[in-house]
Amino acid sequence: MSHKLKVGELREEYLIEEDIWRVFTVVLSNKSAKSATYKYALIKAMIENLYQVNHHHELNYDQLAYSFAKIYWNLIIHHGLVKQNSSDRRARVVTEMLDFQHKHGIPSDFSFDKIKASLQLKLVSKIKSVMKINVFGALYGDTNALFYEFDHRTEYFRFHSTVHEFMLKYQRLIVNLTNYHMAKMIEELNEYPSTSYLLDKVESIAKRSSLKPYEEVLLNYFEATCFYCGKSLTRGNRASHVDHFIPWSFVQSDQIWNLVMACGTCNIQKKDKLPKRDYLDDIIARNNQLQEVIQEKDRDSSLRHYHDQKIVLLYDYSIKNGFDDIWVPN
User: Fold this and answer.
1) Which of 59, 176, 184, 221 is the most buried (most CB within 10 A)?
2) Residues 19 and 79 both lie in one domain
């Protein structure tokens, strides 16, 4: 009954990759104690926050609950992938999502990022309560207390340092495996055309549909020029884009320290590629400026746990995960 735990202490054992893969093999199958989409959503939320940990590999519950709520909203409401069997008891997270949607009259075609910020916070708070009852302890038990520890009172979550490094190293593979098994489970619970159909949906549930808020921030604090080629951009120029310096398909999250303004030509040409390593110095310099101007106004900004080594690490791990097609603007 590990899902009822309010505190889970980490087994600080020496782990090798074989040990971690063995646990993941069980977790990503129907052999685990709680065979539910919860575990996949939490793993995806953990991956989304791998680069948001502090120096002690810690996260707070709000960080994980935000990602978890976004994933589940897009899964349940936006894509309508809800368990259909009326004879089965509906999962609490599904009930909370549907009740919240009905109460606030939110259209089903709204992805999570289209919901008003004030309502997002209310929903995240509700989902965090569900996670305390049904999620943190369940995956903790499935992973034999080897992956992380948690405390509901302080809302504290800490990765085993070796597991954190492992997830960075094999991030792309873990994401693909998690998406596949999540799609397979949804297929078993619903009547859908194929696993490939569901995979397209599952792969997109962590995505934002708009990066407009970040565009406003970047244009407010920096000159309106393309980060890559230096072309002048204007606020009315529809050809300007917000680009993930490290491709979204690897990092699986939207962090302002990984976002830059790009002209339409560079954005289209770059696609899902890494820019030339020389640009690392440029984005590090940009982020140092960004830290100064943003943190003066917002101490709780997404840059709070940023340091230069994070984006260097992200760049290096993305290459190790197969993003080795390096792009240079024409």
Assistant:
1) 59
2) yes
Per-residue pLDDT 10s for the chain (330 aa) are 566 789 999 988 899 999 999 999 888 876 655 556 788 999 999 999 998 899 899 999 999 999 999 998 998 898 887 654 444 466 788 889 999 999 999 999 998 988 998 999 999 999 999 999 989 999 999 999 999 999 999 999 999 999 999 999 999 899 989 988 888 877 776 665 555 667 677 777 776 667 888 888 888 888 789 999 998 887 555 577 899 999 988 888 888 899 999 998 999 999 999 999 999 999 999 999 888 877 655 544 667 778 898 899 889 999 988 899 999 998
| 200, 54: one domain | yes
Amino acid at position 152, single letter: H
220 and 79 part of one domain? no
- Which residue, 193, 158, 165, is CA-closest to 60? 158
This prediction's pTM: 0.82
- Name the residue range of residue 315's domain: 212-327
**CB-based burial label for 8 (10 Å; 0-12, 13-18, 19+):** buried
Residues 258 and 255: their CA atoms lie apart, in Å, by 5
Final residue belonging to a domain, choices 172, 204, 236:
204
Q: Are 197 and 233 in a shared domain?
A: no
Q: Containing H/E element for 21?
A: helix 17-27
Q: Are residues 179 and 34 in the same domain?
A: yes
Q: Based on the domain organization, do 17 and 129 belong to the same domain?
A: yes
Q: Which of helix, strand or coil describes residue 103?
A: helix
Number of structural domains the chain divides into = 2
Structure tokens at 173: 């593979």
